[in-house]
Amino acid sequence: MLFISPRLLKVVGKGRLEGVKVTPVFAFKLMAVLVEFAVQLGILIKVASDDNVLYGSSSILSSAFYLAGLAGALLLHWFEHFNMANSSSSLLVFWLFSALFSIFPTRSWIQATSPDGLSSTLPVLKLVFTILAFLVFILENIPKPNYKTLARPNATTTTANANSASVPVQANPSPEPHSNYFMRLTFFWLVPLLRLGKSRPLRMDDLYNLNPKLLSYPLYLTTKAKLDADEAIAIEKQHTAAAVQKAKEAGDDSATRRLTPKINLAGTIFHTVGYTFMTAAIPRVFYIVFYYVRPILFSELVRFVTSYTEAYKRTSGKEPMTPWIGFGYLIAVVTASILSSLFDGQFQYINYNAGLKARSVFVTLVYRKSLRLSSTNKQEGMGSIVNHMSTDVDKVVAFFDIIHLLWSAFVEVIITIALLYNEVKYTIFGSLGVVVVMMLFVGICSPFVSKNQKASMKASDHRMKLITELVGAIKSIKLYGWEKYFVNKVSAARDEQLMYLRRFFWWITVVVTVINMIHPFVIYVTLSVYAGVAAPDAPLDIRRIFTTITLIGMLEDPIGQLTNSMSAIVTGQVAYTRLRNFLNSEEIDETNVIKNPDADASKIAFEVKNGTFGWYTPEAIDAVIEKKQKADEKKAKEEAKKAKRAKKSTPAATSTGVESSTTLDEKSNPTAASDDKKPDSASETLPATHDSMGPVMHDVNLQIR
């Protein structure tokens, strides 16, 4: 009753739906609930009047709570039918657990009243109550015939008065948002489409429209709000920074402009799809629980079967287990298999939806960035942007899909090792040694995989840029007869990409082959070692062999997931870095242009004051200077190391007695040496770098009327 009351109060205030009729399913459901109430009332009266010790005060209290819950469920059934279009998830949970919790007292009462069994009144009433609870649960899963068209009068009026152009109307909306929890869990909402596909080939008009939660425009609005908020906070911090204040006081207004806010890509993605992505962990945990309880139940089922053998009777001197135990183990194994499959399907579906949302966000960000790129970054060409939007996004989304598989694989390995330790004790560490050696080999090979993957993607960018430029200038190429030259250029770029791809797949093949050899080696080592050190009271019997082989076989899935995820992790990390660098690259400075919306304020249409025009922006020039300085420092360190090694390799007498001609010339004419160094230092100054990177026009003033 406590569980149903909040839902009842919410449903009563909703108002009645138009077009709701009393269906045979609803009438039969109400009759079944009334019979349930009568049966539970009979159980309460019988328990209260019986002097049997088995039916004490706890039975009376539970029957009273059942009556209160049934009364609330009856009211909720009535208001749910006339006020809500969908089935009630609260009622579904209530009837399911009522039926499940009634199974155990039913069995106990039947065994307690033996040899009468079902001839007694109370076990029969309890069995009837359990069957009716399952029946009402099944009937509650049947939706109303016209649930898609049901609406309230006030809701219809409000929708009609609203701006209908802003609300997209779908021709064939998906029934998933209107389905209850158990229809979503079992994918029962797809049955009409599957039934239609069985009768005739499906057409595009038959397919459901996309779930409104997966549409790209709402995701874009959420992402844009997050980006705008982060950018505003970053700009505020930059404006208050001490370095910027000092630059402003010195008269350098470009310091604020050069501090471009960086996009927190991981935070933005998590803000948009984080809830959906984290929700996928719930069915994954349930899948692991039900999947790894099966070998335990299977082991107990084998123990039950062996209790009926003559060898068990001779060695233990005990009677065989009761048939109830075997039936219970069998039902538990089947139920665990079904539930693990259902939760695995839910995990795959939720994870796919999260990946779909992430793909939409990434493509939106890349498209948004491509419209705001500066002229310097646009020189990379459309080929690089196409690679970001297709290849890089695909690889990051693939990495996005395997994150849950990655942590769950480690959890599954730990659970399997614990179960194996329960069966074969310390011999599991022998098999762990095999796993550790092979995984160390895999770890040694991983850097080579990452290195070749990164080089392959860089070569792919170069090839795409060449092809894009070739297609753009195909007329000039054909006119001047440059086909052979450009064919050789593209072929060389393609050969370079194929070389890195061959190396990448060669290392991946080696790693996958080693990992696939783990399974048979572990079985062989584990059983061989345990057969040699097994204690007399725990021999290597059939039950232990089957359970050990099953558990080791279950290790194959998580290890396979780790194998498949390795390449996705490497490529996803590289692609994520490329996307982050692209999204944080330099943009057009909007503060350079001041727009005057008042047309009467001035007759000047376009005006430039103290403008500087060049091929590269100041940010790009600063980046080149910084890169050149780092290269010079690296070169100086390498030369110092070479000089140090050469000094060690030269005999001491020769090094002290003889000097190079270059050193002597420098010592004899220090002015000339300093003069030689002056042009190099001058070339590193900002104005020289400005001019060396293309023609630059300074202090341009222009007016267009």
The helix tally amounts to 30
| Percentage of residues in helical conformation | over 70%
Shape: flat
Low-confidence stretches: 156-167, 652-691
| Gyration radius, rounded | 37 Å
**Strand neighbour order, sheet with most strands:** 1-2
Strand content: under 5%
Total E-strand runs? 2
Structural class: mainly alpha
Q: What is the averaged pLDDT score?
A: 75
Distance, first to last CA: 79 Å
How would a textbook summarize the main sheet? 2 strands, antiparallel
Main features:
single chain, 705 residues, mainly alpha, two-stranded antiparallel ribbon, 73% helix, 3% strand, flat
Q: Could you characterize what this model shows?
A:
This protein has 705 residues and is mainly alpha-helical. 73% of the residues lie in helices and 3% in strands. The protein has helices at residues 5-12, 24-49, 57-83, 89-112, 121-140, 153-161, 181-185, 191-199, 216-239, 242-249, 254-258, 265-279, 281-292, 294-306, 310-316, 323-370, 375-378, 382-401, 403-424, 428-472, 474-480, 483-516, 518-533, 542-554, 556-583, 618-649, 652-657, 661-668, 670-683, 686-692; strands at 606-614, 696-704. It has a two-stranded antiparallel ribbon with strand order 1-2. It is flat. The N and C termini lie far apart (79 Å). The relative contact order is 0.06.
